[in-house]
Design brief:
Blueprint (H helix, E strand, L loop, with lengths): L1 E3 L1 E3 L2 E3 L6 E6 L4 E7 L3 H18 L4 H17 L1 H12 L3 H18 L2 H4 L4 E6 L2 E9 L2 E5 L7 H4 L2 H6 L3 E5 L6 H12 L7 E3 L4 H9 L3 E7 L2 H13 L3 E5 L4 E5 L5 H13 L9 E7 L3 H12 L20 H16 L3 E4 L18 E4 L6 H4 L6 E7 L2 H10 L2 E2 L1 E5 L3 H10 L4 E4 L15 E2 L2 E3 L5 H7 L1 E9 L14
Parallel strand pairs: 1-5, 8-9, 8-11, 9-10, 11-12, 13-14, 13-19, 14-17, 16-17, 19-20
Antiparallel strand pairs: 2-3, 4-5, 6-7, 7-23, 12-22, 15-16, 18-21
Amino acid sequence: MKTIPHWIGGRPVAEAGAGVSPVFDPATGEQSGEVLLAGPGEVDAAVRGAAAAFERWSQAPLSRRTAVLFAFRQLVHEHTDELAALVSAEHGKVLADARAEVQRGLEVVEFACGIPHLLKGDYSDSAATDVDAYSFREPLGVVAGITPFNFPVMVPMWMHPLAIACGNAFILKPSERAPSASLRIAELWAEAGLPEGVFTVVNGDRTAVDALLDHPGVAAVSFVGSTPIARHVHRRASAAGKRVQALGGAKNHAVVLPDADLDGAADHLLAAAFGSAGERCMAISAAVAVGGIADELAQTLRDRARRVVVGPGNDPASEMGPVITAAARDRIVDLVTTAEHEGGELVVDGRGLRVPGYENGFFVGPSVIDRVRPDMTVYREEVFGPVLATLRAADADEAIALINANPYGNGAAIFTSSGAAARQFQRGVSVGMIGINVPVPVPTAYYSFGGWKDSLFGETHVHGPEGVAFYTRGKVVTARWPRAQATFSFPTSR
């Protein structure tokens, strides 16, 4: 079995102050390695090394930073298949999906390559007599990213390319369930010419997380994960005086109006619900059928969900792989069982799925549950698995009210051929990201990603313009090269 170390000071570090944790191949159920877990000592060493690197990197000219970013971008592009294989082996998602994840991460790198333009300040000539005013933005210092298992490449790339481009030193604490891709990314940063200590990987569990949240040398924390942990990260880091963006869980709805292309909507719903085995914060887990189309939609979803090919991620024929752990599989199965007991109509039952040759893998098949009510457990909880719940609404107003009553506010989609209905929807729903005939409305890199309500704790979203703002702080300079005499009167513009 392989051992996954940390990356501190530009090299692998094999220390385990908090022990080790097993890493599994979800397709086989077998342990494939172990990851070393950092304790407070390793975290402190990482922060001190990053702080020293920040002093030099923050003063590097923009041309130097962009040269490294362009080189890193090229290396990630060249190693896309290798990174996708690492993701598939530890997460379980199919290779095509893993490659797409790397590509979406690359888009943020490409956005960060434009950092000279993004950091341009403002200048006001002659704001007062012989006085000019101008502004610019400076990096924060050492910043940390705490990221989930479901996107081991993409979600960290929502953070570290922009943070580093802005002149910060970045410490990544990836999920201990899928850590290998982060170490490879660290090697690619080094190959691109990034100075030692500017990018650090500290593997760990809650011990390492809390050490980062408490450490006085960490200026800001970015987090993506479940809502309970996002709330913990926000409270603890904020109490320690840090800037925080903490993205939590989701219950993403897709509303299907009677005028929608029902076949196309069903295909998109299934792809959005079962892609990556539903382990996406933007997965569609609740479909709302409006008016009299509910029975027809349920029938279409049933017929097509049964044809989804489930298998190991490295099999090109697989459309959906396993979930991350046996515990995740069992929790999803329990939620489906509970939904059945609470009155849901189990249209497609994914429990008990066995993939030939992979009988010990963490597989659960696609499940579609019709006639779900808002009081049911499968609707109230974030499933994070291949389960699509379908609800029914009399009209668009009722569907919008249903979405707005949910405590989560990450994303929502509508399928319709009516521009008026689409506009009513986009203005009416209380969520951060909206798709119109697009089931997974993840913004491109030059817009920012984030939700509302219990899906976000903090003021800013990730990547895009808000990402630049998060990783920098502004200075305004008022300058005079005086010819006039000083006065005790309050300065004015005259």
